[in-house]
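Target chain:
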Amino acid sequence: MRITLSCDTHAAATAAFECPSCRSHLCETECSKRIWAAGGFVHQCVRCDAMLRPLDQDEVTPVAPGPRAFLDRLPELLMYPVRQSTLLTLLGLALITTPLRWGVSQTKLHGLAVLGIILIEALQAAIYFRLVSQTAHGDEDASPPDISEIWSDLIAPLFLYAAALLPILAGFAWMSDQIGSAEYAAHMLLTRPAAMWAHKGPLVLIVFGLFMLPLFTAIAALSRSPAPVLLPSVWKRFGEIMGGTYAVASAAFFCVLALEVLVWLPFMSYLRAEHSLPMITAVITTALAYLPMALRARLLGGMIEPYNHRLS
């Protein structure tokens, strides 16, 4: 069956290209420009100047919506972290963040350490939201973000992640204020979670944030703005459109997150401590530690994919 896609900007026009940066389907007449590059003519996005991919309408296969369709695709989604493009992207991220972590651990300058931590988190957030956005648009080939624009490509994803985590961060800050120490609050969360019942207000906020985390991440990744994450009307719209698919995908997301926190990351820490090639081992284990992150991103992308045009 021939599927015809419309231009995302001009609904009456047929899409001829896909922009790998904007993640949009674009028409040839208004949304692309023809330039000479690499020994031939290519089409470039008029908004971001990225090289456009020709869109073969005969090869477009719509993804079926619904929770059963998501479960049918689950084996395919689970293989995403071990795809070559994904592994190379995660390895590249590890090659950057591992030396940065070492530098943070060695410096005695508090401000420099904080800056290093922010840079590490920004890089990880950029990759995470890039993977969610790419896979939500059906692109299985992971690619690192173009960080030539520091704000939009590096800093903005950090704000998106902060927005998705806002209730959890707010609950933790509230609990830290009640206890009088952020360090002790973190220790209690990790080692004595039953003690949190004494702080019911912060606990409710943290549990709410955890429950809504897949939805907030999906909203942030698709809108590319922190603002819609804060709007209950957007939560309702996303929930109504995705329905049971959200429940199934969220369950898979939390299973991966639990295995990541309770099993995978401690095992990577053990491997890092037991082997004697500090930087090489650290890079490899850091790249492996990112595998569950990539899987969580793919599950959210797979959740959004059948509905992305309606959600946009």
